[in-house]
Amino acid sequence: xxxxxxxxxxxxxxxxxxxxxxxxxxxxxxxxxxxxxxxxxx
Length: 42
Description:
- The chain is mainly alpha-helical.
- The protein is 81% helix and 0% strand.
- The chain contains two helices and no strands.
- It has helices at residues 2-12, 19-41.
- Helix 1 runs antiparallel to helix 2 (19-41).
C-alpha cells in the first residue's frame, strides 16, 4: 500500500493540471492496481 500513500501525497501537491504529473498518476494507478491484483490472487 506504499504506492497509495505516494498517490495521496501527489494529490496534496495539487499538480493535477500538469501533464508530467498526470503520467506519474497513471503509473501510480497501474502499480497500485497491479499490487492489489497480486494480493487478491493470494
